[in-house]
Design goal:
The protein contains no helices and 11 strands. A hairpin with a 6-residue loop joins strand 4 and strand 5. The mean pLDDT is about 95.
Length: about 110
C-alpha cells in the first residue's frame, strides 16, 4: 500500500485547508484499518488529527474536532481532510497514514 497527500501549499488565515490522500495498492473500504491524518508543526511533535475507519466511522481529535471534517471517495480510493478557520498555528507538514505506511507528507503554510 502507498499513500500520497495532495493539496495547496499556501492558505490564508480564516480559510479552509483541503487535503486529499490517494491510496494505491489496496482499498480503503476493504482493508481493516484506520486511515489517519497527522500533522507536525515546525519545531513540534506529531499531532493526531483523526481517522476514518474502513467501515466509514470517523474519530476526530477533541482539540480540532470543531474545525475538522473527513470524507472519503471509495471509487477513487481517496480520503480527504478539511480544516476550517485556519490560523498560522495550523502551519505544519500534514501526513496521511494507513496500515503500517505513511505518505511523504505535504507542507501547508497559513499566511496572509
Amino acid at each position: 500500500v502507498q499513500l500520497q497527500e495532495s493539496g495547496p501549499g499556501l492558505v490564508k488565515p480564516a480559510q479552509t485547508i483541503y487535503l486529499t490522500c490517494t491510496v494505491s495498492g489496496g482499498s480503503i473500504s476493504t482493508i481493516n484499518s484506520d486511515w489517519i491524518w497527522i500533522r507536525q508543526p515546525p519545531g513540534k511533535g506529531l499531532e493526531w488529527i483523526g481517522a476514518i475507519h474502513y467501515s466509514g466511522s470517523i474519530s476526530y481529535s477533541p482539540t480540532l474536532k470543531s474545525r475538522t471534517s473527513f470524507s472519503r471517495d471509495t471509487s477513487k480510493n481517496q480520503f480527504t481532510l478539511q480544516l476550517s478557520s485556519v490560523t498560522p498555528e495550523d502551519t505544519a507538514v500534514y501526513y496521511c497514514a494507513g496500515p503500517g505506511v505513511w505518505g511523504q507528507g505535504t507542507q501547508v503554510t497559513v499566511s496572509s
